[in-house]
Design goal:
- With 458 residues, this protein is of the alpha/beta class.
- It has a domain of 223 residues: Rossmann fold.
- 46% of the residues lie in helices and 15% in strands.
- The protein is built from 20 helices and 15 strands.
- The strands form 4 sheets. The chain has a 6-stranded mixed beta sheet, with helices on both faces. A 5-stranded parallel beta sheet has the order 8-5-6-7-15, with helices on both faces. A two-stranded antiparallel sheet has the order 1-2.
- α5 runs parallel beside α6 and α10 packs across α11.
- The longest helix has 19 residues.
- It is globular, with a radius of gyration of 21 Å.
- The structure holds pyridoxal-5'-phosphate (PLP).
- The site of pyridoxal-5'-phosphate has 16 residues, from α11.
- Its EC number is 4.2.3.1.
- Pfam families: THR4_C, Thr_synth_N.
- Belongs to the threonine synthase family.
- Keywords: Lyase, Pyridoxal phosphate.
């Protein structure tokens, strides 16, 4: 399988090159040249497999330049790091299926992709005799999942900037209790935006980027989408009711999770509809409802990992929606850049609405849903999941409804406590970290100082 850019201006590359490249050189996102599809018979066979075997059955269609035994090994290692053998339990609560995609080492769904990506990076770097220095900014979930994805790995170092005192205590503990020598936590005296600006400036210095082999782990890496495709199959198989197609409800920020679902459908997975759940940062809900993809100010909510305006994976969806018309995508992205928004024609949106519904839950509703769901089912959900469950509880449908639960509630104990009047039970993987030594460097809000830190530690 070869990979092409959504903007069509770079030659096709291999899977391994696509993983190492991240963003394509023409500014587009890499996508597989063709969509591998499964027949009904093949789906039946896949439905009997355990999680790592299912993952292999799907991922092997895309990672065609990795030797099968090696790929199996990478996948098995990635999911052995989860705290349940099932990897993703699908439980039935309040008439809904809740897919707990948060059982990885940092208790948010990003582990599913970043465990795989960490192992993949290690393999490719070793084979090529190269080194990689990952630099990133985090508001919480991505940084910890990325750190756990690469801790202790050969030929990789990771530098994660977080705004000092502005990530949740659990998130901070998860990041800073990793003392492996290849992991560097930088607590920046500033906001998340300051962290992001500094990272952008560092990547903008092409000589520095090249001299120090810098790389990113952001959600546009195809390997991240790929790992997420797997659980749409897994969950569908577990919610099969008399052959009825399921509805998936997906708490959404960067459109990475839900895009993986959309792609699973392109591969032949029967899906009735996707419901894209947002918080007050509802640009994607406005797109689905009225074709209005215009950025507004980001507001802070109870579900911080969805506090995003421009969704980086949305471009991949547009590429497939417009039948792989790369020049159309390029034109739309140009409009987005110059006009800070795109208005889509009504006829296109009618087509979008055949596949996507949407729901936007504000803070009060998020809190109310955590409370009422706990009261009626005894089951505690986190604030991101609550945005999706809010949509699920309003649906009138005969189809099985699968809500993706993107984080363990113990990651966001304050909101849960406020809503349900009960602290979520802490998983062993969080309790274990309490009182461990911390490794973190305080750093001023200054790009040169951060660069100097990287220079000294690579
Ligand atoms: C990252 C994240 C999301 C949003 O996922 P996208 O792929 O960006 O749409 C939702 N919930 C949680 C808990 C997350 O960490």
């Amino acid at each position: 399988m070869r990979y092409v850019s959504t903007r069509g201006k770079v030659p096709a590359v291999s899977f391994k090159d696509a993983v190492m490249m991240g963003l394509a050189d023409d500014g587009g996102l890499l996508v597989p040249e063709s969509v591998p599809a499964f027949t009904a018979d093949e789906l039946t066979k896949l439905s009997a497999l355990d999680y790592p075997s299912l993952a292999y059955g799907i991922i092997s269609r895309f990672a065609t330049d990795i030797e099968p035994a090696k790929l199996k090994d990478i996948i098995e290692k990635s999911y052995a790091a989860f705290d349940t053998e099932e990897v993703i339990p699908v439980v039935r609560k309040g008439g809904l299926y809740i897919a707990e995609i948060f059982h990885g080492p940092t208790f948010a769904f990003k582990d599913i992709a970043l465990q795989f990506l960490g192992n993949l990076f290690e393999h490719i770097l070793e084979e090529r005799g190269e080194k990689l220095n990952i630099v990133g900014a985090t508001s919480g979930d991505t940084g910890s999942a990325a750190i756990y994805g690469v801790r202790g790995r050969k030929n990789i170092r990771i530098f994660i900037l977080h705004p000092k005192g502005r990530v949740s205590p659990v998130q901070e503990m998860q990041m800073t209790s990793v003392t492996d020598e290849n992991v560097f936590n930088l607590a920046l005296d500033g906001t998340f935006d300051d962290c992001q600006d500094i990272v952008k400036e560092i990547f903008g210095d092409l000589k520095f980027k090249h001299d120090f082999s810098l790389g990113a782990v952001n959600s546009i890496n195809w390997a991240r989408v790929l790992a997420q495709i797997v659980y749409y199959f897994w969950c569908s198989f577990r919610a099969a009711e008399n052959g009825r197609k399921p509805i998936f409800i997906v708490p959404t920020g960067n459109f990475g999770n839900i895009f993986a679902g959309y792609y699973a459908k392109l591969m032949g997975l029967p899906v009735e509809k996707f419901i894209l759940a947002t918080n007050e940062n509802n640009i994607l809900s406005r797109f689905i409802n009225d074709g209005d993809y215009t950025a507004k100010e980001v507001v802070a909510t109870y579900s911080p990992s969805m506090d995003i305006q421009i969704a980086s994976n949305f471009e991949r969806y547009l590429y497939f929606f417009y039948d792989k018309d790369a020049s159309k995508v390029e034109e739309l992205m140009k409009t987005l850049k110059t006009e800070k928004g795109i208005k889509f024609p009504a006829a296109d949106i009618a087509k979008v609405q055949q596949e996507f519904g949407t729901y936007s839950a504000a803070n009060e509703e998020t809190e109310a849903v955590i409370a009422s769901f706990y009261k009626s089912t005894g089951y505690i959900i986190d604030p991101h999941t609550a945005c999706g469950v809010a949509a699920g509880l309003k649906l009138k449908t005969e189809s099985p409804v699968i809500c993706l639960s993107t984080a363990h509630p113990a990651k966001f104990p304050d909101v849960v406590m406020k809503a349900a009047g009960k602290a979520p039970e802490k998983p062993a993987g969080i309790i274990r970290l309490e009182g461990l030594p911390r490794k973190v460097a305080d750093i001023p809000k200054d790009t040169e100082t951060v660069k100097e830190f990287i220079r000294r530690n690579v």
